[in-house]
Amino acid sequence: MSNDVSKNTASAVVERNPTAWMKKNLLTKENLLLLLIVIGVVAGVCLGVGLYGKGLSKRDIMYLGFLGEVFLRMLTALILPLIIASLISGLAALDSKLSGHVGWVTVLYYMSTTFSAVFLGIGMVFAIRPGEYGANDDENRKKGGRPSTVADTFLDLIRSMFPSNLVEACMKKEYTELISPMMISAEPEPEPEFAWNSTNYTIPEQKVAQYINVSGIDIDDPYTWDFTPNVQANGMNIMGLVVFSVAFGIIIGRMGEKGRPLKEFFDALSEAVMLLVHVVMWFSPVGICFLIAAKIVAMDDPEQMFGRIGMYMATVVAGLSIHSFIILPLIYIVFTRKNPLMHFLAVAQALLTAVGTASSAATLPITIANLEDNRHIDSRVTRFVLPIGATINMDGTALYEAVAVLFIAQVNGVSLDAGKIIALSITATAASIGAAGIPQAGLVTMYMVLTAVGLPVNDISLILSVDWLL
């Protein structure tokens, strides 16, 4: 992606007519794809509403959602190459660009605003609770899970950052399993793999009589229970792959000329993966249509779910508005002591282009031209800072993915502990870097975040109906 960014930067030098550039680039394949996705969403909602209550069997619903399942499987297959290639390529190019104090201050600022967007999104979800809209207390507690402690969760998080086998990390993840101090005579029911939390773990009342308390162990204190460390489960160790990719990318950047062959390899791999993402996304209108239709038919209460999705949209929009119109302007005022409104007006063309193209990378030439012509900022600063921002500063994507993941958790009645929230923050930030300013690439990286916190990836269909809009 660094090649694309440099080409866009170079084009800003020769292209000095932002209005003409904007008109030319709004009529793109990406906007045609967006229109087709909207049509697919509308068709899926109409099909699902039309078939709801028609007595479709479980097998019929499976047939209805088959093309959507194929679409999800294609997206899932892209997670691994997308994570590795995009992070290594982006950070290898980034490190070579960091020249002294300005470079590190730029990266620190970008990372700070991204993390602030993630934590703002998390706070908005816990405050509004869109996934629990219209639900009673019993529904909110409908999911059980494996017992866990805060200490075990943090230690598992750190262990996952340093996998002993990178190949195994692509297929397996590990966790600490607590052993209940109760001995059960009957075989316990299987527990969901995607959630474990000591606060919502309960023992069925009908089996209480079958449990025998083990001497010397406090039933109510999980820290006194026996445990089995490093229990393996199916699924990618996202945290380990992210940490390795980040470290490997930085090392390649610091190798200079010796690391150039590796850098060019991962640049090409990243470009190939992104092109493959674009190919897969052309199938998205069909896949999204049947995913939404099958999800609506399978719903117990579609009206309630539509209400939750509406609250989810309101949460995302509110979070983006607070970040864009309160947090960022406050930062601008603190450091410049100037009116942020004048800055917004100066880059209005860039903002409108971003809305039309849904791509920060495509908006880069307009942004450079606006800042140099309207704000008279030194070209050496704009052409150093802005390409880095187009690569790693995806505040909106980070906030959106944090809200979406917690929304899916609430819909499933799953509460995430502190360790999972930290994992969500790190992976949402890494996923926003991996998105690299490409339209709809955030939909792919959403799988990365869901997998990292152990939530079911199939429930991404809940937000597909409004993903194009947000």
Features:
470 residues, 2 strands, mainly alpha, disordered N terminus
- Supply the number of helical segments: 22
Major sheet characteristics: 2 strands, antiparallel
In N-to-C order, the SSE pattern is HHHHHHHHHHEEHHHHHHHHHHHH
The averaged pLDDT comes out at: 76
Gyration radius, to the nearest Å?
24 Å
Classify the beta-strand content into a percent band: under 5%
The residue fraction in helices comes out at: 55-70%
Poorly predicted tracts of residues: 1-15, 183-188, 191-203, 205-214
Name the overall outline.
globular
Give the spatial strand order of the biggest sheet: 1-2
Q: Distance between termini?
A: 24 Å
Query: Which structural class is indicated by helix and strand composition?
Result: mainly alpha
Provide a descriptive summary of the structure in words.
This protein is mostly helical and 470 residues long. The chain has 22 helices and two strands. It has helices at residues 2-14, 18-26, 29-51, 58-64, 66-77, 79-97, 100-128, 137-140, 150-161, 166-169, 238-254, 260-281, 284-298, 302-336, 340-346, 348-357, 360-374, 379-392, 395-411, 418-435, 441-453, 461-467, and strands at residues 172-179, 226-234. A two-stranded antiparallel ribbon has the order 1-2. The longest helix is centred in the C-terminal third of the chain and has 35 residues, at 302-336. Residues 1-15, 183-188, 191-203 and 205-214 have low confidence and may be disordered.
